[in-house]
Amino acid sequence: xxxxxxxxxxxxxxxxxxxxxxxxxxxxxxxxxxxxxxxxxxxxxxxxxxxxxxxxxxxxxxxxxxxxxxxxxxxxxxxxxxxxxxxxxxxxxxxxxxxxxxxxxxxxxxxxxxx
Length: 115
Hints:
Strand order of the largest sheet: 1-2-3-4-5-6-7
Radius of gyration: 14 Å
Number of helices: 2
Largest sheet: 7 strands, mixed
Helix content: 10-25%
Oligomer: single chain
Structural class: alpha/beta
Order of helices and strands: EEEEEHEHE
Shape: globular
CATH superfamily: Gcn5-related N-acetyltransferase (GNAT)
Distance between the termini: 37 Å
């Protein structure tokens, strides 16, 4: 069995259920950022590495959690990690591209958004 490296980010997230910090985990083995809400709700932002860049390719948030800022929390944590590691970012995922369009101040390491 391989090694699973996990980095934890505590990002404040306001939800209707709880108003406590939420942990975003960087699951290096699966190449995704994960946010677990409750015991059975898992949201994630996946990526691949291509040509010296990290490509954010898919964001998934369970229907019950949509509209509560979960996707935004994942994107912020992923961009923070990309900046820390000095990764050039390509936003192939339309959700990530839309987030970056709304937050141009976070575009420093972004090479290009969704095609």
